[in-house]
Design goal:
By secondary structure, the protein is α/β, with parallel strands linked by helices. The chain is built from 14 helices and 17 strands. It starts with 9 loop residues before the first helix and ends with a helix. The protein binds glyoxylic acid and manganese (II) ion (2 copies). One manganese (II) ion binds next to loops.
Length: about 425
């Protein structure tokens, strides 16, 4: 790696493991659950407070903090060329309803720590480096739209479409954003979607591979594709004690038959690469003495192969129709993302940094979705994975070690110095 005076390894050497860990502890208090997890739903009071805390941490450095119209937060460490497009690094502060202490927040705190380390090492870059929080990455945890902030940033999702999305209580993103803006009066405003030079996201792996192999760094090469569906089954409410079988239009019985048939279709033993999940299942009126008249459920389907995504995904509607019995069913695809393959620039830089720091590493493909997916459409992008305990994520038991989090941040710091030179 060419030495431009910044000296390979100098930024990494200033990464402070204890400070990084303490920031995770501080953030985990915002929405902390009794069982050691975090419930910090997109744009709720804790999610807004997480932005305020980051802005407070940025103040001693004099770094500019700005928020755009979708609530993405940017903290800028200037470069020597103010006109140069910045290199961005970050992730999300929102969690699943019973989420963990690392999914998302690690990428934000790693970016912030990398900037602090560059500062401590006296590193000068030509390009500005920005730590970023992307709004509402966790689709369906509160609002039924994932990678929302990054999707709006890159122009994939119109701002007005995102603002109109409502949570399960009917509160819109627009209303939640207006509350966030009012709660952060000291944070400057900036327009959506200014050009960037590159994007790197640190994240826990959320799977078991790195831990099993005893490696600290995953050089992420891409993200598998996904298709998500909403299935709405309409029957008729009826009396549980008096309605004979022939007169029932039981939406729950029909929905259970659909899920059973879908699980058989999506079962790809022994290869086990098809990911099929019914994660939300809502029965109405959900009363013991009423034949249920309405069921809505979600399907989260993921695979690395476009052909499998197409072939299996296209069978969701016919299978639901074939199992609807006396009910009607409407199947809507609510989102879809093609598999992402990062261009070489960022993965190569990540790999060079891991090698230079003598950290055990491997190339790895992401099963989980990330903001780096949308970002790769507008700039060279990539990710750094670190191990998490037993591969557990989207759960309160999610865990990672301070040493692994710091190792990933050292790789991130060197990668950012490289990309911002
Ligand atoms: C994002 O967390 C996902 O569901 O992959
Ligand atoms: Mn995440
Ligand atoms: Mn997640």
């Amino acid at each position: 790696m060419a030495d431009d005076g910044n000296g390979f390894g100098r930024a990494a050497a200033k990464v402070d493991e204890a400070r990084l860990w303490q920031r995770h502890v501080d953030m985990a208090r915002l929405g902390g659950t009794p069982r050691g997890g975090v419930r910090r739903l997109a744009l709720d009071a804790n999610d807004i407070q997480a932005r305020a805390l980051l802005a407070e941490w940025a103040r001693p450095y004099g770094w500019a903090v700005a928020m755009d119209d979708i609530g993405n937060l940017f903290i800028r460490r200037p470069g020597s060329d103010a006109a140069a497009e910045p290199v961005l690094s970050g992730s999300h502060t929102d969690t699943q309803p019973s989420g963990g202490r690392f999914d998302g927040i690690y990428g934000v705190l790693a970016a912030f720590e990398a900037m602090e380390a560059m500062e401590a090492a006296g590193i000068r870059t030509r390009r500005p480096v920005e730590a970023v929080v992307w709004t509402c990455e966790e689709g369906g945890a509160r609002f039924p739209m994932g990678t929302m902030g990054s999707g709006v940033f890159v122009g994939r999702t119109p701002l007005e479409k995102a603002r109109a999305v409502a949570d399960y209580d009917g509160i819109t993103v627009g209303a939640a954003l207006d509350a966030a803006r009012a709660a952060l009066p000291g944070v400057a405003h900036r327009p959506i979607g200014s050009p960037i030079a590159g994007y790197v996201e640190a994240h826990i792996e959320q799977g078991p591979i790195l831990e099993e192999k005893g490696l600290q760094i995953g050089v992420v090469t891409g993200i598998q594709g996904s298709r998500r569906f909403l299935v709405e089954v309409e029957g008729a409410d009826a009396h549980a004690g008096t309605t004979p079988r022939a007169r029932r239009r039981d939406a729950l019985s029909a929905a259970v038959a659909m899920v059973g048939a879908l699980e058989r279709l999506f079962h790809d033993d022994p290869s086990d690469t098809v990911r099929f999940t019914v994660g939300r299942f809502v029965v109405t009126p959900n009363a013991p003495a009423v034949v249920p008249g309405h069921v809505a459920f979600t399907i989260d389907f993921r695979n690395p192969e476009p052909e499998i995504l197409r072939r299996l995904g296209d069978q969701v509607d016919p299978i639901c129709q074939a199992n609807r019995g006396q009910c009607t069913v409407i199947v809507t695809q609510t989102s879809g993302g093609a598999p992402v393959h990062f261009a070489d620039r960022v993965p190569d830089a990540v790999e060079a940094a891991a090698r230079g720091l003598r950290l055990g590493h491997m190339r790895i493909f992401s099963g989980a979705g990330h903001d780096a997916g949308p970002l790769h459409a507008v700039a060279p992008s990539g990710m750094i994975f670190v191990p998490c305990e037993k591969g557990i994520s989207h759960a309160e038991a999610e865990n990672a070690t301070p040493a692994d989090l710091a190792a990933g941040t050292r790789v991130l710091a060197e990668t950012l110095v490289d990309l911002a030179r």
